[in-house]
Amino acid sequence: MKHYESDVIQFRGNHYDFGYKQGELLKDSPILYNREKQWATKRKYHFNVNEEEAIRLFTKFFPKMLDELQGLADALAWELKDALREFGGLYAEYERSGCSIITGAQYMIRNYDANPAFYEGRYMIYQPTDGGYATIGPSMQITGRTDGMNEKGLAMGYNFINRRGLANGFLCNMIGRMVLETCANVDEAIALLKAIPHRISFSYVLTDPSGESYVVEASPRKVLARKSTISTNHFEMLIEENRYRMDDSIRRQEKLAADKKNIQDVHAAYQLLNNEEHDIFAHKYDASAGTIHTAAYLPQEKKALFAIGNNRMPVVFDFNRYVAGERIHVTKIKGALAYNLPFATMERM
After folding, report:
1. What is the pLDDT of residue 50?
2. Which of 152, 173, 217, 247 is exposed most, by the fewest CB atoms within 10 A?
């Protein structure tokens, strides 16, 4: 087992200053070096940025992100187009992953499955002062989120479906950030997901304090929403977008459906995904299908739970108290995984 840790980064202020602060932190982090090394062979084909089109899309759907990206660029002494390429959540290629999500009347529990070498190890808590909702959740591609919750109690997670049939549009991580920061409830989130362009096929799971839960099946060609409390890595409606091999996704879906019948509370729901003996938590890290974190969001209580590794007690964040002005005193979340490569933020690889 190798020990891992995620930095807890909290910030209150406008988007430009938030971007600038993140840029300053990146200067002292191994992540930019590791990212350059990991993506070196793909940059020529997958990181071409149409700056004008990117600015148009952000201006239409998430204009404050342009301020955050400019802050990042200024802190790193880059051009805006460089920040758009690296952190814009539009054109970078996405590593395929696993992931399982269940929801209940009071919770969303999510296993994030991927390769730890590409994981950023940054747990972000941000309260904007220039518009947008306060959010909490792990980062992806610096500006995006893998899952999370906002101050209204809207919780979001997503599951990878397929890379086939790529189109110009936003990636899951930026879509997740956009949903959390601009939508107050499930209905607003569904409307946004139907309006924005999608680069890759993903399922987006949404719930809010009402207890309603939806899975939004989104591909570059079509977006449909259905009520559901379970999501893995295949579509139920847009079946033409599915991968050819879905055995493990179907296995996890069926097991979650069977075991969920016996769940009585949030603690049991969390253990179903995090405890190894339930056979949902996975160790297939080299295949980008090993579980890195288990996150839980309680929309009614506005609490977030987070753990790295299996069979672990989660760190609990009282997001309501943060939104009310209190500072969170946790600075790192520590855990362990059965793998040998570090997170991208931990050391040079």
Report:
1. 83
2. 247
Question: Helices 80-87 and 51-61, interaxial angle, to 10°?
Answer: 70
**CA atoms of 19 and 193, how far apart (whole Å):** 25
CB within 8 Å of 41: residues ≥ 6 apart: none
Secondary structure letter of residue 328 according to DSSP: P
The larger pLDDT score, comparing residue 167 to residue 308, is at 308
Which uninterrupted H or E stretch holds 267?
A: helix 266-274
CA atoms of 151 and 131, how far apart (whole Å):
13
Domains of the chain: 2-12+98-328 (3.60.60.10)
Residue type, 78: W
In the chain, count H helices and then E strands.
11, 17
297: its two tokens? 């969001």
Cα distance between residue 82 and residue 120, in whole Å: 19
Q: At what angle do helices 247-260 and 266-274 cross, to 10 degrees?
A: 150
